[in-house]
Design a protein that fits this description.
The chain is of the alpha+beta class. The chain has eight helices and 16 strands. Disulfide bonds join 67-82, 85-98, 88-106, 127-145.
């Protein structure tokens, strides 16, 4: 019964709101029946922030009372109780508190935006590797991404970071051995202190696996097969999520030897990601070729050319 009463009151209030929208001025009275004489009578409406506690008659005016805490009325009305203040939904925060004459206003919390198609707040989209943030998301709009322009890169997925300028090897007195792309920085070498080509490849391996997406089962198999100094296989690799798998690859790369890095393309190919493995091998070949070209050396070492 209480629910039906609330629906009735809400219908009245919405009807008044619609009338206000289509009228020049709102009537400040309403027609009722005098409980004493039984004749029609014009009663005063109650102002916003109040409700009609008792109707008028031929001998008394309308009795209006202030809305109690947690309730409101926004318009001149003759409803029997104030409307309950709204409650912000999932992933929303209060933008304006509810008062006696206005309901609360909500907006999406930090990191979320209102999606009209779903009528809910959704997390801002992250720009994938190779893309940067052109416009950050707001409470009303999603992130706007763009492909990193020539000379810039992004090696992470982010809802905040724009593309970063490729470093200049020549400014540091170095030679570039791998040209930067949209998803990785340039790789530089000191020709006076040459390293194995696989050592230079280390710089882009973490971002390589972020950019070249593959299903989680295949990525788990790759991590499980990574060679380690102790020869142990990480059993937990088959249970890790994407974030944990990429973190594991980053940790492995930091301590892996050149010989172990050189095994990586073949490991990727053997788990069924042939195209990705060949691309990784191509990157290594490019590095070795550019080291020989830019550092004026034809033969570097068996490890590098093997």
């Amino acid at each position: 019964m209480e629910f039906l009463t609330l629906l009735t009151e809400l219908f009245i209030l919405l009807s008044v709101r619609a009338w206000l929208t289509n009228s020049v001025a709102a009537p400040l009275t309403y027609a009722d029946t005098d409980p004493i004489t039984g004749r029609p009578v014009q009663c005063d409406r109650c102002p916003p922030g109040t409700y009609l506690r008792a109707g008028c008659s031929s001998i008394r005016k309308s009795d209006c009372a202030a809305c109690p805490d947690g309730s409101f009325t926004e318009l001149w009305n003759y409803i029997g109780r104030c409307l309950r203040c709204g409650v912000c939904g999932r992933n929303q925060v209060v933008k304006k508190e509810c008062t006696a004459d206005s309901d609360c206003q909500c907006e999406c919390k930090q990191g979320y935006f209102y999606h009209q198609d779903y009528d809910m707040c959704m997390r801002h989209s992250e720009c994938p590797s190779g893309h940067g943030v052109l416009t950050r998301g707001t409470a009303e709009k999603d992130t706007v991404c763009h492909i990193c322009p020539e000379g810039t890169f992004s090696d992470i997925s982010s809802a905040n970071q724009n593309c970063t300028q490729h470093k200049s090897c020549s400014d540091a007195g170095l030679q570039w051995v791998l040209k930067g792309s949209t998803w990785h920085d340039s790789v530089c070498a000191n020709c006076e202190e040459l390293k194995d080509g696989a050592e230079y490849l280390k710089e882009i391996i973490p971002s390589f696996f972020i950019f070249h997406k593959m299903n989680i089962k295949r990525l788990r198999r790759i991590v499980h097969r990574l060679p380690s100094q102790e020869g142990k296989k990480p059993r937990e690799a088959l249970e890790l999520n994407f974030s944990e798998l990429h973190a594991h690859i980053g940790n492995w790369v930091s301590s892996a030897t050149a010989a172990q890095i050189q095994q990586l393309p073949d490991i990727v190919i053997k788990v069924g990601a042939t195209s990705v493995g060949e691309k990784l091998q191509s990157k290594l070949n490019q590095i070795q070729s550019h080291v020989a070209e830019h550092c004026n050396t034809d033969i570097m070492s068996n490890d590098i050319t093997g």
